[in-house]
Amino acid sequence: MATLSEETTPRRPVVGVVAPDDLIERILQVGAEMAAAGVLDFELAGISYADEHAIPQVLQRVQNDLDACLFAGPLPHDLAQESGVLDLPSTSIPLSGSALFGTLLRAKLELGADVGRVSIDSVPEREVREAYADVRLPIDGVRVYEYRDPGSPAEFLAFHREQFRSGATSLALTSVRTVAQRLAAEGVPVQLMRPTSATIRQAVRTAALLGIGSRLEEAQIVVGIVKLPSGTPAGPGRNELRLAAHTVLLQEARRMGATVLPDGEQGFYVIATYGALMAATTDLAEQPFVRRVRQELGLEIEIGIGLGSTAQEAESNARKALTRPGAWPPRSALLRSGRLDARQVQRKDKRDKALATLAKLARAADAGTAGPLVVDAGTVAELLDMTPRAARRVLLNLIDQGLAWQLPPVRSTGPGRPRQTYRLLVEQLHA
Hints:
CATH topology of the largest domain: Alpha-Beta Plaits
Largest sheet: 6 strands, mixed
Distance between the termini: 52 Å
Structural class: alpha/beta
Low-confidence stretches: 1-9, 325-346
CATH superfamily of the largest domain: Reverse transcriptase/Diguanylate cyclase domain
């Protein structure tokens, strides 16, 4: 039996910092100072990139070891979200407020720039106006191009170039490293916007809290109560059936590091953590244990799953879940804090809506012809009469529901980011 001194303590939550190399060093330094001061108990892990479009591939390799992500700005954050690989609580460092003030001050002190004649991308125009008003600077010569979605940086370059070459501005302020590099190569004076330490500190704190919350939820106790069919007659046959069911449950429980204990003559307890349950059931997309017991023994078991901060609370919720009507999937429910998990209730509705969207796309694209149906966000936007940003959300939802695949980006010979295409699984409509 383990003594108290032998018990392991839960590891500290790890926040992945997704940023260029030079900014990662600065963020890690701020995080180390916060940890040393005892502000929060967390760790930071640097995830660097040279090209923003490589972020999804880099993140996919490491995110299993993370509890939350902090991105250097809205662009890398959106690229990760739209790729469909991001499966963690996440936030980004804002580029307005003190970050804008700091960049303007550096431009004035280091470059001697006329900050009344600059082009600024990414920051909302309203916030730029407020910042200039706060320091009583004229804004008539300032040009702004707001960030809208991951397609915006492709437009930033032309915006800054046109403003400078027309003589309207004398300096470009950009948040995108690749845009800054291209402008510098073309001889356009440019200053890369970087957040201040105060902005970084606030963003790190937010990300750490997200990671702590994620770690606490994953560590919560899950109790599953498995009930065998009640019509089995007493005698040796029932004992053999119960032993066989116990064996199958033990085999399945090993996948999630769970413990199986007897619960009277007609059932069992299964004890695990919430994080392990989610991983083993693909975010509750399938019922734990039910399919395996049906395949091995031909039995239809019932399972109620309860979540709680203590074993007693989790068991109570599990017993309530067994008797909860209308649970989805049938004969299985997850109960936390006295209510069914919303994902379990809404999963079928989401699937039905995604299938309806897929059917509409198939009809609009005349998918009855031979060959796979491959689209991009622009095509979906045109077919469904919506904005490209809304179309990207539609495609990500189809991926989440297993109704589309994301294909490798198609690189063009000209400038601009690679074209992202998706294979629509129209055959799922007839499955």
